[in-house]
Amino acid sequence: MTSLTKILTHAFDKDEGHVHIEIKEKPYSNPYLVGVGLGLVLLAAFVIMGRGLGASGALSTAVAVTVSNIAPEHAAQNNFYKQYVGDENSNPLMDWLIFQTLGVLVGGFLSGTIAHRVKKGVEKGPQISTKMRLVYAFIGGGLLGWGAKLARGCMSGQALSGGAVLNLGSWAFMMMVFVGGYAAAYFMRRQWI
Amino acid sequence: MKKFLSNLTTNQKLGGVALVLGIIALFAGNPYGGTSIKVNEKDLALSTVGNSDKVSVTDLADWIIKNKADFELIDLRSEEKFNEYTIPNAQCIPLAQLSSSELLRNQKIILFSDDDVASSQAWFILKSKKYKGVYILNGGLNNWKEKVLFPKAPVNGSKDELAQFENMKEVAKYFGGSAQSDSSVTDSKPEIKLPTSNTSNTKTTAPTGKKKKREGC
Amino acid sequence: MNAPFFKFEYFNTDVSLIIAFAIGIAFGIALEKGGFGRATILASQFYFTNMRVLKVMFTAIVTAMLGLYFLSVIGFVDLSLVYLTQTNMLPMVVGGLVAGVGFVIGGYCPGTSMVAVATGKIDAVVYVAGMIFGIFVFGEMFPSIENFFNSGFMGTVTIPSYFNLSYGLVVFLVVLMALGAFAAAEWGEKKMAAKSGKVKA
Description:
The complex is a heterotrimer of chains A (about 190), B (about 220) and C (about 200).
Chain A: H1 2-11, H2 31-49, H3 56-70, H4 72-76, H5 79-85, H6 96-114, H7 130-150, H8 155-164, H9 168-185, H10 189-192
Helix pairs in contact in A: 3-5, 3-6, 8-9
Chain B: H1 2-7, H2 10-28, H3 41-46, E1 54-55, H4 57-65, E2 71-75, H5 79-84, E3 90-92, E4 108-112, H6 117-128, E5 133-137, H7 140-149, H8 159-174, H9 197-201
Parallel strand pairs in B: 1-5, 2-3, 2-4, 4-5
Chain C: H1 13-33, H2 39-44, H3 52-73, H4 89-106, H5 110-118, H6 122-149, H7 159-162, H8 167-196
């Protein structure tokens, strides 16, 4: 564990005047145990609600509701926004995924706080500037948002949840994410290593 | 052996458990058993359509007139028969599609067909799937036609029966039928196209205003 | 069969929202504990230096899959009531590719970005803004790509049913595949660490 500390310390040596990540944090747990924990949470969702987890859906609902509030006729003619806005009978923001995502924010914060891992900062590799990192973050987010909507889900919804129920499309999606990721990794290596 | 097991790391233990479970899965069988109904014969025999599970046609007529809407009225016959004539506010769910319908278990469900046979079958199916509020329309549509649409005047009836008959005349009128004061009119099946059949046709297959909850991610 | 509980009307929609919140908290805790709130850790999956992403994801999938399978076999869970997204093969393939590229460029996926935002990472906030933008662009483009979005429709299909294998057999194969992937990952990490003189923690 101390070697991880060494790596991180050296990784940020070159940068001056940028926001660093401080290292006095508790180490991360065994990934397999974490995986079992995550799997049990997912299982609970299946057993209690009959559905899996998700993430991109909450943002989609937010976007759709915003668009339909600003330009209702435009949203009403768009089949994508329509499915997230629902009918007049219910508030579209009272949505399972939105509440779940709020929980993720809270849970992440709680866990981070307990392990002293809540620190303002920018995650990046040693060879790239903060500014470029943020540019890439925006671009990456845009691509992922777009791709996730095309695929009707993201890692949490399709890969994790769909994977656990052996959904054919979900596994195809998951495989392609790894393909796309490894393909792009070479070109993005400056950002990370 | 014990030593081998205790020397394994956590990860190897986890992996071992997964492998064992995976091998068991090879033989454990089909997980979709949930689509067949488990029937406890004793319970079901004891609970076969008791009187508390029956709804009389006159009660139903009363509720409809009073606009009581706390139940789902299900017509189990085919769509053509449904379109020909059905009781107002009824939904068309042919018996064969009953298990794949979207009926919720906490609804009050009143089933009817021409007679009691299909509705009893449907009652059985729903009860086995743990639906709680399942009722059959006593006598089905035939009884509805006889008692509600075309009530016959009681021959030599008592004062109460006659009073009741006056009542039924109004009810029959409401539903577009007509009271039969002359029992010689046995030639039934006059036109039974009700004005109200328009409203019931708008609810052929979709559940009453329940928006399907989006479950994607 | 009395599960999934919600489908059997054990509680109503409002309570389900509270449950959503609770499950979300657990989800967030698990993600954070796994180190998934850090873009550097997530990205290192694609450079073979830290294979956490693969380990956590596949362990979670296998755990949930085994749990769901056995609970269904004993009849506690009605598997046919568990939600399955429909499969639109080509859009999902293309979407997966784009999402994978986005993952490496951005360093997060939607769920992990939430955890990162919660632990103060500014790049995660920018990433979320990017996602919102991407979703908006998709929404605006939707009328023109709607046909593609709906193409390749295969209904709701599982791997067992598509390949005509028994569910249990697929479960077993997935377990094997995961264990194989873990072994490869451990081996790969050690090699990378030895190569660069660092020891993976």
